[in-house]
């Protein structure tokens, strides 16, 4: 059985004087442990698609199934990481990373162990008593990653989590996030405007059309590249030809409009 299935998914927004279809006829199957990236023109419905998968929005048409069960509302089985870290400034790092566990009633030391282990793995074990304002942007995003993983979700949704960072920090964090996700065997979906980032981190890249977004084309990344750290993938001889192939398809979408 597929881990995540989207069947004929459509989302239309209704207001008093307008009707806007954000995505339509989305059919997508994702297997357990896959890392998928979704790219496409601005406004094509990438973030809407993540919101549908998370249960924050409901499809107007179609079904979204996680482990065979229809997604009807947000669930602890899904973790969400956004462009901004959205850490609570009045809470310490320790309090921020265990907040999700607290809302689930998991307050025992043993239940918090994963959060502390992740914080240590990401080099932030000495920051537990610090506040978000005392950390750099890259550090705060690492804390946001720990917060998301601490509840041990099955599916991770990443909405341009590196876009606000400087390029050097972005590359380092790509490696860190990728290796952490692979180590813990998670399934992940990344939304990004960065073709290079999508190819460097993913098993497959899904290209959406202009709004209303539908799947225009799917690109598979060679298995040996999909297992490499993103920085190393960028240096591989197969990276540039694949980048150019995806770029040309995106250019063809622009010309169609």
UniProtKB/TrEMBL annotation:
Keywords: ATP-binding, Nucleotide-binding, Transport. SMART domains: AAA. GO terms for molecular function: ATP binding; ATP hydrolysis activity. Pfam families: ABC_tran. Residues 4-235 form the ABC transporter domain. It comes from the Bacteria. InterPro entries: AAA+_ATPase, ABC_transporter-like_ATP-bd, ABC_transporter-like_CS, ABC_transporter_ATP-bind, P-loop_NTPase. This is NitT/TauT family transport system ATP-binding protein.
